[in-house]
Amino acid sequence: MGSKLELVKYQNFWCRSFRLKDVIHYQKHFIAQDTDIFIASLPKTGTTWLKSLLFTIINRFNPDHQPLNKNSPLLNHNPHELVYFLDHGIYGGKPPLPSPQQLQQLPSPRLLQTHVPYASFPKSIKTSSCKIVYIARNPLDTLVSQWHWHLKLIKNWVGDLDEFQPPSIEDFFKEFCLGRFPSGPYFDHVTEFFKQSLQQPNKVMFLKYEDLKGDHVVSHVKKMAEFVGFPFSDHEEDEGVINDIIELCSFNNLKELEINKTGMMRKLIDNKNFFRKGEVGDWANHLTPSMVEEINILMQEKFGDIGLSFQV
Ligand code: A3P
């Protein structure tokens, strides 16, 4: 199991060894369509949340997908079942996921997700007129969230934590600072998408987890809907549809759904692990002042020049 979670360096990023084969196939064989919408992110930065929001936004004209309809698929599916993850499973031929051929035939717009860094995207994503929505989260909360996730993976896959020495937060922190983070280095991944969003503003939208958590969430969701070509009408705004969607996809709502309390994600992990705390600032409960200082210095070094900052 240790080796299953092992990170291997591939094309300048760290990839889980069990995913590498699928990632290479996806890079080689995936063909993007101009109408595609991609969710790009590092793990633990709000991918599940963004999947819920975008899935609801683009499907809201389907009578079965009305945000508050009791038949909304989000109410009885984990968001990861509704938005396919390209880096693992599909190119490994794992039913019930679609095969690569079936993937090509999904109705448009296809909403798909990847953790692969921009530089390693399949060529057709870069050359097509698709849209990419990237979500970033401050490094401190990302690191802490990933640490908890890692412990859950070990527990789910090994059973008893006592039989396997789980990494301490200190070990995890050291690795993070050295760049060893799934799909990382963290700073390279975020910087690359941020720069792309400046160079290609019609193609790449850069969102922050902290902004979605803040007071201006409505305007961020509105912009995102416009960006992917599903703007809210004045009538919808008056009817409160944006708030309904935000409420449906909120942490508290999703976390309490039966499917997310008791279901399992492709026999890999309990759905409940996708919903831990959902807060900004949980890092304060885990990291020492010197760790925070070191990451703040890295943030300044890596993000200062490009004008990127996070509210932590
Ligand atoms: P925490 O571990 O800090 O609680 P990802 O979806 O990329 O794996 O990210 C998981 C993180 O997002 C977890 O953070 C999880 O609790 C949080 N999260 C999941 N759904 C959320 C939601 N609807 N709103 C806010 N945060 C959410």
Question: How would you sum up this structure, described in words?
Answer:
The chain contains 15 helices and nine strands. With 312 residues, the chain is of the alpha/beta class. Strands 4-5-3-6-7 form a five-stranded parallel beta sheet, sandwiched between helices. Strands 1-2 form a two-stranded antiparallel ribbon. β8 (264-265) and β9 form a beta hairpin. The longest helix is centred in the middle third of the chain and has 20 residues, at 139-158. The two termini are 34 Å apart. The structure holds adenosine-3'-5'-diphosphate.
What is the C-level CATH assignment of the domain at 21-138 and 184-279?
A: Alpha Beta
Rg on CA atoms, Å = 19 Å
Number of helices: 15
Largest sheet: 5 strands, parallel
Widest beta sheet: strand line-up: 4-5-3-6-7
CATH architecture of the domain at 21-138 and 184-279: 3-Layer(aba) Sandwich
What is bound: which ligands?
A: adenosine-3'-5'-diphosphate
Structural class computed from helices and strand pairing: alpha/beta
> What is the N-to-C succession of helices and strands?
EEHEHHEHEHEHHHEHHHHHHEEH
Termini Cα gap? 34 Å
